[in-house]
Amino acid sequence: KAGVTQTPRYLIKTRGQQVTLSCSPISGHRSVSWYQQTPGQGLQFLFEYFSETQRNKGNFPGRFSGRQFSNSRSEMNVSTLELGDSALYLCASSLGVLAGLGNEQFFGPGTRLTVL
Amino acid sequence: AQSVSQHNHHVILSEAASLELGCNYSYGGTVNLFWYVQYPGQHLQLLLKYFSGDPLVKGIKGFEAEFIKSKFSFNLRKPSVQWSDTAEYFCAVVIGNEKLTFGTGTRLTIIP
């Protein structure tokens, strides 16, 4: 079974631009979560989608948004990029909704975003 | 809000030494606990997880963790580390209906 895939793997943008990252979950998985990983803050939860609905959201500004399609693929968008948005963005998928049901998350390789 | 503390930021051990990495979480209701590992240049991988039942959980590659409810802890252990265990280790917790929260990670360096 193929794992979680993320595209692109690397991205360089300049301040003020916007970016869209894509995530394809493991076949059959309906939940997709996004995380931001930086050396200073570690792994921080962005949001979780299940059946095209946002189930949970972290403490990020409204410039960070996402969506999920009917085939469970998900996209994350960041508008008006700032230098501090440089990070590794990780996507993870699980069979069901993560919280409280003991579902295990499987992580993708991440998209390394550099904002200049 | 739930929080996770990993007190060891960087641990350096010699091969064959025993390992214990600390993880404490904030008080909450039903708890799901995880340890993830990120080897250099690789994806985050699940080492082990605790949902319910036996508080001593065995994972892959000889790792184990013990859930001690009274101490709000879920420490990771391995009796004899190898050079290939060099990686970053993350403790994570889901309490109730909240999101998965990660600790800041512990970088483990094994000296051959």
Question: Short description, anyone?
Answer:
The complex is a heterodimer of chains A (116) and B (112). With 116 residues, chain A is mainly β.
Give your account of this protein's structure.
The complex is a heterodimer of chains A (116) and B (112). Chain A has no helices and eleven strands. Chain A is an all-beta fold and 116 residues long. In chain A, strands 2, 4, 5, 6, 9, 10 and 11 form a seven-stranded mixed sheet that branches. In chain A, strands 1-3-8-7 form a four-stranded antiparallel sheet, with no helix packed on it. The radius of gyration of chain A is 13 Å and the shape is globular. Chain A starts with a strand and ends with a strand. The model of chain A has no long low-confidence stretch (mean pLDDT 92). Chain B has 112 residues and is mainly beta. Chain B is 0% helix and 52% strand. Chain B is built from no helices and twelve strands. The mean pLDDT of chain B is 91. Classes of the chains: A mainly beta (116), B mainly beta (112). The A-B interface holds A 3, 33, 35, 41-45, 48, 56, 58, 90, 92, 98-100, 102, 104-110 and B 30, 32, 34, 36, 43-46, 49, 51-52, 90, 92, 94, 96-105.
Overall mean confidence score, pLDDT of chain A: 92
Strands of chain A, total number:
11
Number of strands of chain B: 12
Strand content of chain A: over 45%
Q: What sequence of helices (H) and strands (E) makes up the elements of chain A?
A: EEEEEEEEEEE
| Morphology call of chain A | globular
Number of helices of chain B: 0
Radius of gyration of chain B: 13 Å
Described by strand count, sense and barrel closure, the largest sheet of chain A is: 7 strands, mixed
Unreliable spans of chain B: none
Structural class of chain A: mainly beta
Percent helix range of chain B: under 10%
The gross shape of chain B turns out to be globular
Give the H and E element order of chain B. EEEEEEEEEEEE
Q: Poorly predicted ranges of chain A (pLDDT <50, ≥5 residues)?
A: none
Mean pLDDT of chain B: 91
End-to-end separation of chain B: 41 Å
Taken as a percent bin, the fraction of beta residues of chain B is over 45%
Counting copies of identical and different chains, the oligomeric state is: heterodimer
